[in-house]
Amino acid sequence: MLDHASLGILLQALQKLDAGFAKLPEFDSSIPGIDRLEEVLAATAERLQDNYPYFHPLYAGQMLKPPHPVARLAYALATWINPNNHALDGGRATSAMEKEAVAEIAGMFGWTHFLGHLCGGGTMANLEALWVAGRLHPRKKILASVQAHYTHGRISGVLQLPFESVPTDALGRLDTDALGKRLERGDVGTVVTTMGTTATGSVDPLPKILALREKHEFRIHADAAYGGYFVLAENLDPEAKQAFARIGEADSIVIDPHKHGLQPYGCGCVLFRDPGVGRHYKHDSPYTYFSSAEMHLGEISLECSRPGASAAALWATQKLLPLKKGGEFARGLERGRKTALALFEKLKKDSRFVTAFTPELDILVFAPRANSTSASSALSRKIFEVAAKRDLHLAVAELPIHFWEKSLDGMKRDRETLTCLRSVLMKPEQLQWADRIWELLSETTSEVLSGKAAAQE
Ligand SMILES: Cc1ncc(COP(=O)(O)O)c(C=O)c1O
């Protein structure tokens, strides 16, 4: 995990940063508590050991991975200045970097004229998109699929906007027949289209939703917090590819650089196709925005103080790994999907497992076969625990039975959901580890199914 070379590079960059301020008079900067720095930092490192090894290819559980070294270093570098991107007064350089980096993200979706900025993460970005949706269609409903991120319902509650869920099909995608029927009844302001659901990475059928927008007037908000970067991947199945190809037709898009964009946490992004929605942010503050007539990011953002360091990290990462099809960054996303497909093929052929559907992105779900869905659910939890003892870290998820119908065969359906295993294969290097992951999963499953794991407790 430790990368000594990069610390040397950080030191050089810090010296360069310092040189920019060399003409200032010396000052005595006594730092409170500095003599115990080493001791306290060591104690911090010790506390941080109590974490799953998110950086390792055998951590194949939730959507977690460390940032790219350039992001980590650029972030650290910027904290020596600690710019605040609320206003140009607080972060002139990093505000410019944010505008450039966000324009590159928008460009990925084909947008050149847009409004957008970084924010704390996917929840904050979605809040902002739904806030604008509510301003444009006050009192009209927000619809999202039952597999959309749970915060859409909660955010609508915060904004006091009425919210309704739409069912999904057997592939975990928003059911457009059900949506069509709901739209006939009217009163819908915005439909949230999830471009990569949190649980299964399912991609809602955006082309069909766009066709419905031709008939009924509503806004489309694309929650691409997880999946957005897959617009660059060239190994998706046709339906997902077609959905991503049209994402630029949505009215707003959320994408999380802190998920697939190699950034540390605290980096979400919201984009609006119509820059005119900026009028909803208008406010009169007597104490900010005096340094220039140029646009301050705080004038188009709900949050005030925001880390300029996030912008520096994102800007640097995109300089190193540009957001383009066929580039190194895009290849990394493609590798994640390849890993998910490789493991899916192994699971499908192995009678010890049941699978739901082919992963559309890089998220895989599966469960052990048993006499009943409740027995399978209990075994999933056991496999999750025993695999962790072998250093293979998976996640568990609770998914509706109709996702599994095709492979349940004679299993008794005594539950409405199946507790299954879920693996987010978002680290490109996991492709080389697919065989090892499979070996550990296979050994763990044999141990659990033979009852040895229970006997050892
Ligand atoms: C599709 C989707 N939307 C929104 C979110 C919320 O993002 P955050 O955790 O960054 O607030 C997530 C998080 O997993 C997500 O997968």
What hetero molecules are bound to the protein chains? pyridoxal-5'-phosphate
Spell out the helices and strands N to C.
HHHHEHEHEHEHEHEEHHEEHEHEHH
Main sheet overview: 7 strands, mixed
Strand order of the largest sheet: 1-7-6-5-4-2-3
| Number of helical elements | 15
Report the count of strand segments. Answer: 11
Which range best describes the helical content: under 10%, 10-25%, 25-40%, 40-55%, 55-70% or over 70%?
40-55%
Enumerate the spans where pLDDT stays under 50 for 5 or more consecutive residues: none
**Outline:** globular
Q: Over all CA atoms, what is the radius of gyration?
A: 24 Å
Structural class: alpha/beta
- First-last Cα distance: 33 Å
What value does the average pLDDT take? 95
Q: What share of the residues does DSSP label as strand, in percent?
A: 5-15%
Walk me through the structure.
The protein is α/β, with parallel strands linked by helices. It is built from 15 helices and eleven strands. The chain has helices at 4-19, 37-48, 69-79, 92-108, 122-136, 151-159, 176-184, 206-215, 238-245, 308-320, 328-349, 373-389, 405-408, 434-449, 452-455, and strands at residues 115-119, 141-145, 163-166, 188-194, 219-224, 252-255, 268-272, 353-355, 363-368, 395-400, 417-424. The strands form two sheets. It has a seven-stranded mixed sheet with strand order 1-7-6-5-4-2-3, sandwiched between helices. The chain has a four-stranded antiparallel sheet with strand order 8-9-11-10. Helix 1 (4-19) runs parallel beside helix 3 (69-79), helix 3 packs antiparallel against helix 10 and helix 4 packs across helix 10 (308-320). The longest helix has 22 residues, at 328-349. The two termini are 33 Å apart. 46% of the residues are buried. Bound molecules: pyridoxal-5'-phosphate (PLP). The site of pyridoxal-5'-phosphate has 14 residues, from helix 5.
